[in-house]
Specification:
Chain lengths: ~170, ~400
């Protein structure tokens, strides 16, 4: 069983690493998606079926499109796809911000007491998960839904803008 | 071995399993499990491939029939060897890769697409005892595997180093993402009624007959019917079928994001398209049409997989009929139809489904009120939204026809 975990981890980390090293942004984005698939495979390995499929549905199906569209819409040409830091100051700033995020995440992981459940891991059915989410955690779920709706409305506002298009000629 | 002909446990019902066990009986336990799984995979790939080949022929013959022409009739008697001839043609064609293309992605796109379009077949219950993989979150697995095909469309459009195919890929992605929403919303009522995400559980929830002859299929409830119609429309769009086939639009766009593909890679894209169509139809049968359940009690003598095949065949013929009947939409019409009509209807349908599930216990004559209210909740928004969608567009008059 642990061989599978090592393989999944190697694939995930390798695709993430190569994504960092590739000069071509599209290649990086696609490799990042491969790394997300690796994380989904890890969830499957850990027995969290629902989370694994949700990860594929949301990250590989939707977030990947956002990333790819953003890359294509912000580049002027294919030659522009190769990116490097504009200046040493920017590179330092990027390193600093990335390092800060890494430090926060690492601290959170290290500081969380991870106690194994007695009698080994138990596979949770979707029904239990749903009851848990809509029972004790309903408030959090509603808050997340509200934030996402606000983000969606904001996006519509930004996209719609002020301009008025002339009416489409009617047949 | 006891031979019983009772429905549900007859020899015919167990025939596929008997054949499988006869083949793998000699193997020791862990290997037997592996052999059984491999056999299931081989059968699925074989059946899906065979169905793809057969469907291309049936489609061309049927289109010919509808358009009053013979259709393919040269290869073999009545043209029945046409799929084989097509296969040989596709295999022997030159495989052209543009010089400026991104070779790895150009090669990977059809492979990724085909791999992800075969995955959904794993969770479909083909018969009472024929479920390749039983997953607690089977429906979610099905749509997660389907969602990854969008990636392949992008890869195909981008890898060719052709601005037209890239533009076509973006259009195609816009369509796929827009119709994913109604597709995913349309079957939520079914999940609500069945109370499970497992495909076998959903089929089991549709067992039985009201008054002995009306099956408990989800399509026979107001919310289920609306969900079924929305699901089928979104499935047409998700599998790039006419009248939503404008990503390819072979007569106008020289196949859009597939412009830079030729030979067998091109054939693989078509194979994936048909696999997607077959998988979505099979899912529609499972979710709304009772899966492998027989429509009437005395017909349960016929084995369950025959019923599944019959329903699947019916839906696929419906796809072909629609292709023969409707003209292609324009991109703006396509988008407006998704966002201003299908998505609001699917959202409102959730409310209807909640009402339907909450009033399940209403006694006697109140059931009539329940039916009237639910039908009103389905038909009212449909009529109002439909009018708004068509407002200002007078009926087209053909002055020179």
């Amino acid at each position: 069983m642990n061989l599978a975990l090592v393989l999944i981890a190697l694939l995930t980390l390798a695709s993430a690493g190569v994504a960092l090293a590739r000069p071509n942004l599209i290649h990086s984005a696609l490799l990042l998606i491969a790394s997300w698939m690796g994380i989904a495979a890890f969830y499957l390995w850990a027995g969290a079926e629902f989370i694994a499929f949700a990860q594929v549905l949301v990250y590989v199906g939707a977030v990947s499109m956002v990333v790819l569209f953003a890359v294509l819409l912000t580049r002027r040409s294919r030659a522009d796809l190769a990116v490097g830091p504009a200046s040493a100051g920017r590179a330092a700033g990027a390193l600093l911000a990335g390092g800060a995020v890494l430090a926060v995440l690492a601290h959170a992981v290290i500081a969380t007491p991870l106690t194994a459940a007695p009698g080994g891991p138990r596979s949770v059915t979707v029904r239990e998960l749903g009851l848990e989410l809509l029972g004790p955690h309903a408030a959090a779920l509603l808050a997340v839904g509200l934030i996402l709706t606000l983000a969606l409305l904001g996006a519509v506002l930004l996209a719609a803008g002020e301009r008025r298009e002339p009416e489409e000629p009617r047949p | 071995m006891s031979l019983s002909w009772a429905a549900g446990d007859s020899v015919l019902e167990r025939a596929p399993l008997i054949v499988r066990d006869a083949l793998t009986r000699a193997l020791p336990e862990p290997w037997r499990w592996l052999a059984n799984s491999l056999l299931a995979i081989l059968v699925i790939i074989g059946l899906a491939g065979g169905l793809f080949a057969g469907l291309t022929l049936v489609e061309r013959k049927l289109l010919g029939r509808v358009q009053n022409r013979p259709g393919p009739n040269r290869a073999g008697p009545g043209g029945i060897f046409q799929p084989i001839a097509d296969g040989i043609k596709m295999l022997t064609k030159e495989d052209i890769v543009p010089r400026a293309a991104d070779r790895v992605l150009h090669f990977a796109a059809p492979v990724v697409l085909l791999a992800f379009s075969i995955l959904p077949f794993a969770v479909i219950p083909y018969g009472r005892r024929l479920v390749p993989v039983e997953l607690d979150a089977g429906v979610l697995y099905f749509f997660a595997a389907g969602a990854a095909t969008e990636l392949a469309v992008f890869m195909a459009g981008w890898a060719g180093h052709n601005k037209y195919s890239l533009l076509a890929a973006m259009r195609s992605l816009a369509q796929l993402i827009s119709y994913e929403l109604p597709l995913l919303l349309s079957f939520v009522p079914v999940i609500l009624f069945a109370g499970t995400l497992s495909t076998t559980g959903i089929v089991a929830a549709q067992a039985g007959w009201k008054w002995g002859w009306i099956p408990h299929w989800h399509v026979f409830s107001p919310a289920g019917f609306a969900g079924f119609v929305i699901f089928m429309i979104a499935a047409l769009a998700e599998s790039n079928r006419s009248p939503f086939d404008l990503p390819e639009a072979e007569s106008e766009l020289i196949a859009g994001h597939l412009t830079e593909y030729s030979g067998f890679k091109y054939a693989l894209f078509f194979m994936a398209e048909y696999f997607g169509m077959i998988a979505l139809s099979a899912m529609a049968v499972t979710l709304f049409l009772g899966g492998w359940q027989a429509p009437l009690p005395f017909l349960a003598v016929i084995p369950s997989y025959v019923w599944f095949a019959a329903k699947l065949g019916g839906l696929l013929l419906g796809f072909l009929w629609i292709r023969a009947t409707f003209p292609r939409l324009r991109l703006d019409q396509l988008m407006r139809f998704a966002w201003k009509f299908l998505v609001p209807l699917a959202l409102l349908n959730l409310g209807t489904a909640a009402f339907w599930a909450a009033t399940f216990e209403w006694p006697g004559a109140l059931q009539l009120v329940r039916w009237a209210l639910a039908v009103g909740l389905v038909v009212g928004p449909f009529v109002l939204l439909g009018r708004r969608l068509g407002a200002g567009y007078a009926p087209r008059t053909y002055r020179y026809a």
